[in-house]
UniProtKB/TrEMBL annotation:
Domain EAL: 685-943
GO MF, one example: cyclic-guanylate-specific phosphodiesterase activity
Cross-referenced SMART domains: CHASE, EAL, GGDEF, PAC
Catalytic activity annotation: 3',3'-c-di-GMP + H2O = 5'-phosphoguanylyl(3'->5')guanosine + H(+)
Keyword presence, Transmembrane helix: yes
Protein name per the record: EAL domain-containing protein
Length: 958
């Protein structure tokens, strides 16, 4: 939790605010007291000064009144008397500049006065003041003339001055007479013309004995007055000075007089105290408290005003108490707030620490609770998992096992013992290799042991166990190492499952993959394996072993004659007899078709092999019943002896095969050991095969044509196209040596196509030629091999050749052997019909040597039967052969087929055939197969070439 403190706590702020409030209140209270005291003091001092001024003015009037008494009490006062009387008055009241006596006189009295003054003042005359200059007064009805004046020497020129013309005099006199009291003039200028700061006080004088109670009486009785010239500033200053009231620097005293309120006196330099006001604020709050006292009063008919203002003072002078209270209060408030803040902060820090600790404790507690809850969940999950695991184990076919650090089983679930039919006590506390001592002898066991030593997991460990019920079962284990919390190895744990079913299935699959489905014998794959084992065994013991390649003689005939089912039965019977003819340790395998291989090993006695072989041949030669008929099957056997004839292991079967061919060549139903010379033939065969692959594109093939002659007319009616291979090194290779090879390799398909195209083109050319000569067209017979017959585009390709060469379909005769039909009769029928639909003729070649089922002759759209030359050869000498030929001719007649005999070499044969109604013949008697040019010459001349014209085919080894 973040530790946060506010800059100023609330309590401190409240304390500060309270302190400031109290301080403010205290400050205001003290300031109010100070203000009250100041106000009172000011009022006192101001009033004192105003009263002093009023009293001084009254004193001035009193002094004048005293002077006026002199004239009332003495009938004839002289100037000397007046001077003497005035002198102490003037000394006592220095603000009175002069005292004078003025007489209200008529002109006669002026004259009398002038006369009276003349002795002491020659040329004395009553005067006026005009423009500040004293001039003789003109004659007037009345004069108010200054008769006496004090102090005399200083104001001697004032005697005789008529003051009545002065503007202030008449109204003042009138007021005086009206009120019957002394009167004062407005302010006048005396010393300085521009400054009106003086006034004159007048006290009336009445004629003695006359009443003066009313204004009329007083005007009637008025004879003059006593006047005092007073200088107002002087007057006021004297009054204040005498009263000791000039030493207060904080007061501004100003005195105004007259209707115009002329300032006649001021104590300060400031002209206006109001200018000192610093700011507009409550007077008690301001540093300066602007106070004034103004008193207006009347002095002998003139208005006077005295104004006293308090001058500004330093704040401290009057507010030290409030200021101390303010500063003290502020300091106290701040200190109190700081103290409260400090206490608050400390309290908060303590609270924060407490909260922190509390939160830590709560978090720890929560974590603890979480941990406990998580642990409980984990335990529950574990229990559930354990339960599920046990349920799964119970439900599944698998089991669980554990081993300790020494790989001894410590725990195996029940499933294992139920499956394996073994006892728990035989497993718990023991290792795998203690249970099965031979475990570590196997490669699998050693690899497993190495994995355990390396503490590595393992998977798919397969092992077999023979249970107490005597059955052997297969199991599979998967495991991983177990470590404790400290990382120490504790053993292994894992699961196991019964894989017996899978193993059996695999065995079955392997068996199928390695065995021939028809006979159950090992197939070519397993044969190789067994052969390797036998070779290894022979190598280990320095023993001999023999490989027999067994080929059935004339199996094709049986198969073609009786069909596949019979053929299969025959092969199964042969397989059983072979198996029974050898020892258990020997191997008998089916290589292909009617070829079998036997491996005879572990025969210590070398001489034993021929016995075994003879036994095999004898067993196979036993009659067997197929399709209700009894058959005898012979075989030809080739034998390769390992470590005897120098055959390398990988060529054993090949050499046995060569030897088997050799046996066949020797006349079948015999066996032959392989020897080195046989290998040469095989190599030659391979050489031819290699050359055959290039022969077509190198143009090494040519066609020879053998005429087919109509026996009735003796004319050539057709020819059979026969393939010849002119090899640059081997010379002319006979078809017997390469047609079979071309069949095996599939090369017969392109070669056959070339033959068909060439033969058709040639026939078309000859027929064109013959047509020009008015001769009948010739038919060309072309042999079709089994591979060609199986080509899906056979019909289309023949049609294309006919179309391409322009040969009419009726001129093409396709020669087929019976073996082509036996595999799939229905398909063969369809195909023959399709070919027939093209318009070509179909011949059965070598008729009588194969299946020779007369029934198919009805089904198949056959046109010609060609009697095999093996029957023709002996017709003249062998009654049986002759009977067969006669039967074939009769059959053809019945089926309305053309019949042609091949291999006719003699006139006797020719005669026999002609005598029995054979349609056509082909044979050396008429012509051997010849090149095209020769054949062309033959058909042009109508003569056949001599039988010796065609050289005999060269032997392969040539
Ligand atoms: N699929 C193909 N097979 C072909 C082709 N060319 C030939 N062959 C087949 O090769 C076999 C051997 O043929 P060949 O050596 O040409 O022998 C033929 C004749 O020379 C021979 N013959 C003819 N008259 C006589 C005779 O009076 N005596 C005697 N000993 N032999 C004679 O017979 C062979 C013709 O036989 P066939 O075809 O059955 O009519 C052979 O089987 C050819 O079929 C080919 O292009 N394609």
């Amino acid at each position: 939790m973040a530790r946060r403190f506010t800059p100023v706590s609330l309590a401190a702020a409240v304390t500060l605010a309270a302190g400031l409030c109290v301080t403010g209140a205290l400050f205001l209270a003290v300031a109010a007291l100070e203000y009250g005291k100041l106000t009172e003091s000011f009022q006192q001092r101001a009033s004192l000064r105003v009263a002093a001024i009023r009293r001084g003015l009254d004193d001035a009037v009193e002094a004048l009144t005293v002077a006026n008494q002199l004239f009332r009490t003495m009938p004839d006062v002289t100037q000397q008397q007046f001077g003497d009387f005035a002198k102490p008055l003037l000394q006592r009241h220095p603000f009175i500049m002069s005292l004078s006596h003025q007489h209200w006189m008529t002109h006669e009295e002026r004259l009398a006065f002038e006369a009276r003054m003349a002795p002491g003042h020659p040329g004395f005359t009553v005067t006026d003041l005009r423009a500040g200059r004293v001039v003789p007064a003109p004659v007037r009805e009345r004069y108010l003339v200054t008769e006496m004046f004090a102090p005399l020497p200083a104001h001697h020129g004032s005697l005789g001055l008529d003051v009545w013309p002065l503007s202030a005099t008449p109204p003042t006199a009138e007021r005086m007479l009206h009120t019957g009291k002394p009167a004062a003039t407005p302010l006048v200028s005396v010393l300085q013309p521009a400054r009106r700061d003086s006034f004159v006080l007048l006290v009336p004088l009445y004629r003695p004995g006359m009443p003066a109670d009313t204004p009329q009486q007083r005007r009637a009785a008025w004879i003059g007055d006593t006047a005092a010239l007073v200088r107002a500033p002087h007057l006021v200053h004297t009054i204040l000075q005498d009263g000791g009231l000039l030493d207060d620097p904080n007061l501004l005293l100003r005195v105004y007089a007259g209707d115009d309120a002329d300032l006649v006196y001021t104590t300060g330099a400031e002209a206006d105290a109001d200018d000192r006001r610093w700011f507009e604020a409550p007077p008690w709050l301001a540093f300066h408290h602007p106070q004034h006292v103004a008193k207006r009063f009347d002095l002998l008919g003139q208005s006077w005003q005295v104004r006293v203002d308090a001058l500004p003072r330093p704040f401290l002078a009057d507010h030290a108490g409030s200021l101390i209270a303010l500063v003290g209060g502020l300091l106290f408030s701040l200190l109190a707030a700081a103290l409260v803040h400090t206490l608050e902060q400390r309290s908060r820090r303590v609270q924060w620490l407490v909260d922190e600790r509390t939160a830590d404790l709560q978090r720890s507690n929560a974590r603890l609770n979480d941990d406990v809850a998580a642990r409980k969940r984990t335990e529950r999950a574990l229990q559930e998992s354990e339960h599920r695991f046990r349920r799964l184990l119970a439900l599944s076919s698998d089991w669980y096992w554990e081993q300790d650090a020494n790989f001894c089983f410590t725990h195996i679930t029940d499933g294992f013992f139920e499956k394996a039919h073994v006892q728990r006590k035989d497993y718990i506390g023991r290792t795998r290799w203690q249970i099965r001592p031979d475990f570590l002898e196997s490669k699998t066991g050693r690899e497993h042991h190495a994995l355990l030593q390396a503490r590595l997991p393992f998977a798919g460990l397969e092992h077999e166990i023979t249970g107490e019920d005597g059955l052997t079962r297969w199991f599979q284990s998967t495991g991983e190492p177990v470590y404790d919390a400290q990382g120490d190895f504790r053993g292994y744990r894992g699961t196991g499952s019964d894989i017996t079913e899978r193993k059996l299935t695999e065995q079955r699959i392997r068996h199928i993959a390695h065995h021939d489905a028809l006979t159950g014998l090992p197939n070519r794959i397993l044969l190789q394996d067994r052969l390797a084992q036998a070779i290894a065994y022979a190598n280990r013991g320095g023993r001999r072993m023999w490989v027999l390649l067994i080929d059935l003689d004339r199996f094709k005939f049986v198969n073609d004659t009786l069909g596949h089912k019979a053929g299969d039965q025959l092969l199964r019977t042969i397989a059983g007899r072979l198996r029974a003819s050898v020892r258990e340790t020997d191997t008998v395998a089916r290589l292909s078709g009617d070829e079998f291989v036997a491996i005879l090993s572990e025969h210590a006695d070398e001489a034993l092999a021929p016995d075994v072989i003879d036994r095999i041949m004898a067993a196979l030669a036993q009659p067997m019943t197929l399709e209700g008929k009894e058959f005898c099957v012979t075989c030809s056997i080739g034998v390769a002896a390992y470590a005897a004839d120098g055959t390398p292991a990988e060529h054993l079967i090949e050499h046995a095969d060569i030897a088997m061919y050799a046996a066949k060549k020797l006349g079948r139903n015999r066996w032959q050991f392989y020897h080195g010379a046989m290998n040469e033939e095989t190599r030659e065969r391979l050489r031819i095969e290699g050359a055959l692959r290039n022969a077509l594109e190198r143009g090494e093939f040519v066609l020879h044509y053998q005429p087919q002659v109509d026996l009735a007319s003796g004319h050539i009616v057709g020819m059979e196209a026969l393939l010849r291979w002119r090899h640059p090194e081997l010379g002319v290779v006979p078809p017997q040596r390469f047609i079979g090879l071309a069949e095996e390799t599939g090369l017969i398909v392109p070669i056959g196509a070339w033959v068909l195209r060439t033969a058709c083109a040639q026939a078309r050319a000859w027929n064109t030629m013959r047509e020009a000569d008015g001769l009948a067209p010739l038919r060309v017979a072309v042999n079709l091999s089994a591979r060609q017959f199986a080509q899906p585009d056979l019909v289309a390709s023949i049609a294309a050749v006919l179309d391409g060469t322009g040969l009419p379909a009726a001129c093409l005769d396709l020669e087929l052997t019976e073996s082509l039909f036996v595999d799939d009769v229905a398909q063969a029928v369809d195909l023959l019909h399709a070919l027939k639909a093209l318009g070509v003729a179909l011949s059965i070649d070598d008729f009588g040597t194969g299946y020779s089922s007369f029934s198919y002759l009805r089904t198949f759209p056959i046109d010609v039967l060609k009697i095999d030359r093996s029957f023709v050869a002996d017709i003249a000498s062998d009654a049986d052969e002759a009977a067969i030929v006669v039967s074939i001719i009769a059959l053809a007649r019945n089926l309305k087929l053309r019949v042609i005999a091949e291999g006719v070499e003699s006139t006797a044969q020719l005669d026999f055939l002609r005598a029995h109604g054979c349609d056509e013949m082909q044979g050396y008697h008429f012509s051997r197969p010849v090149p095209a040019e020769e054949f062309e010459r033959m058909i042009r001349s109508g003569h056949a070439c001599a039988p010796e014209q065609e050289p005999e085919p060269l032997p392969l080894s040539a």
